[in-house]
Amino acid sequence: MSFGKLLPSATAHRETFESAKHLSIVDGDIFNCVLAYTCKGNVDTLWTENTKHFKKYSFLKVETP
């Protein structure tokens, strides 16, 4: 298993803003949106204590550690 740094791409930023507009995401929830779209297609599972904030992203598997 390998871990590396994952940075948001231009596509992740575009998808974030489109999703934020469509889902009416504002304020601090934008960070979660950026994180979700940065993970999209790059990670199998996002491990977080904050699983409820990621339920709207059906493309992302989220689990509590």
Structure description:
The chain is mainly alpha-helical and 65 residues long. 38% of the residues lie in helices and 9% in strands. It has one domain (10-63). The protein contains two helices and two strands. The longest helix has 14 residues, at 10-23. It is globular and about 35 Å long.
List its traits.
38% helix; 2 strands; 65 residues; globular; single chain; two-stranded parallel ribbon; mainly alpha
What's the helix and strand layout?
Layout: H1 10-23, H2 29-39, E1 45-47, E2 61-63
Parallel strand pairs: 1-2
Strand order of the largest sheet: 1-2
First-residue to last-residue Cα separation:
16 Å
- How many individual domains? 1
Query: What global shape is seen?
Result: globular
Number of strands: 2
The mean pLDDT is 92
Structural category is mainly alpha
Share of helical residues: 25-40%
Series of secondary-structure elements, N-terminal to C-terminal: HHEE
